[in-house]
Every structure is written in C-alpha cells, then in structure tokens.
C-alpha cells in the first residue's frame, strides 16, 4: 500500500530507509509521510536500534557525499580514520530532528529481544528487521512504513511504501 492511502489517525512503525530517503532528498513521498507524523495526522513510532541504524547510514552517506571517503567498505574506512568522523556534523543534526517530527522512539528491552527471536525463526529475518516486528507486536501496531521488500512476506503486517523510490537493498 502507498503512503497516500494511509488513513489519518493511523499508528505506524517506521523503518530506517524511510528516514534515509527523507534526509538524503531521495523521496518526496517519505518527506510528506514524515510531515504527516509531525502534524500528528498519523502517529509514527520507531525503535532505538532503527535510530542507530539511521545514524550509522547517514554518517556514511555524509562522508561519501563530502568526498572524505570513497564508496565501498565505508564503515571500515571510517573506523580506520576517526578524524574523518569528527568532521561530520550534518548526519547528527538530521538524527536529532527525528523526535521533533513527533516520532515516538521506543526502547529495546530484553523481552523485546526474545520476541524478536520468534520472528527471526518464523520468517528468516535479520536482527534489526525482527526487532522491529517484535516492537510492532509489543505495541499492537501492525502498520509498517518501509521500502524493504523483506516485509512483504510478513502476513501479520500491512506494509506501507513510498511510490517514488524503487525497493533497494543497500549494503553498508
């Protein structure tokens, strides 16, 4: 389902790629969706680990776009040159904007981690994807905004996707 079909008053969990597309200027749909959250037309949630993923990916994106590192093994390059990381600022400013968008960042708990294991076993998911589903379960919110095709096979979810970005898998 497309973002513009999401009814007002809905609750929805938000995956990292939605924030990445918004902050990188790749998707007007993602920006409009997050503006709806900010206006409290819809109620957005994400998890702490998703926020960390956004931070990590935006940091690498900033390093590449500023020409401080070249694409390919970006994390390894940054890890070996901490002086580059200290020069980066934009990614941090962007991540700090997430709560101002009226996005509720929910904590991770040991119980949530155990619930994530069930989702991993049931659907063969990676850790961040399974913990996001465990949070959906914990908060009884089965709407998920994501452009990750892996969630299309989760029968418990209603997947909401931007219509102006092709589904991609980016390995950082």
What key attributes describe this structure?
172 residues; alpha/beta; 5-stranded parallel beta sheet; 8 helices; 5 strands; 48% helix
**Mean pLDDT over all positions:** 94
Which regions are unreliable across 5 or more consecutive residues at pLDDT < 50?
A: none
N-to-C span = 27 Å
Radius of gyration: 16 Å
Q: What portion of residues belong to β-strands?
A: 5-15%
Q: Profile the largest sheet.
A: 5 strands, parallel
The top level CATH class name: Alpha Beta
Number of separate structural domains:
1
Number of helices: 8
CATH homologous superfamily annotation:
5'-nuclease
Number of strands: 5
Secondary-structure-based class equals alpha/beta
CATH architecture type = 3-Layer(aba) Sandwich
Here the CATH topology equals Rossmann fold
Shape: globular
The level of helicity is: 40-55%
Order of helices and strands, N to C? Answer: EHHEHHHHEHHEE
* Strand order, sheet with most strands: 3-2-1-4-5
Describe the protein.
The chain has helices at 16-23, 28-38, 48-65, 74-80, 82-85, 90-97, 110-123, 127-138, and strands spanning 11-14, 43-47, 103-106, 143-145, 158-160. With 172 residues, it is an alpha/beta fold. It has a single domain, classed as Rossmann fold (3-Layer(aba) Sandwich), CATH 3.40.50.1010. Helix 1 crosses helix 2 and helix 7 crosses helix 8 (127-138). It is globular and about 45 Å long. The relative contact order is 0.21.
């Amino acid at each position: 389902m497309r973002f513009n079909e999401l009814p007002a008053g809905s609750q929805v969990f938000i995956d990292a790629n939605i924030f990445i597309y918004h902050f990188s200027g790749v998707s007007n749909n993602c920006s409009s969706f997050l503006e709806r959250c900010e206006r409290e037309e819809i109620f957005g949630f994400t998890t702490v680990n998703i926020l960390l993923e956004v931070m990590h990916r935006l940091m690498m994106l900033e390093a590449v776009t500023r020409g401080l590192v070249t694409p390919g093994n970006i994390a390894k390059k940054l890890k070996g040159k901490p002086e580059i990381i200290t020069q980066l600022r934009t990614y941090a400013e962007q991540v700090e904007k997430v709560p101002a968008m009226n996005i509720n960042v929910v904590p991770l708990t040991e119980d949530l981690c155990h619930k994530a294991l069930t989702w991993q076993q049931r659907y063969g998911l990676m850790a961040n994807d399974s913990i996001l589903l465990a949070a959906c379960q914990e908060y009884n919110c089965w709407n998920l905004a994501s452009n990750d095709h892996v969630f299309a096979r989760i029968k418990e979810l209603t997947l909401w996707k931007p219509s102006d970005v092709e589904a991609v898998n980016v390995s950082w």
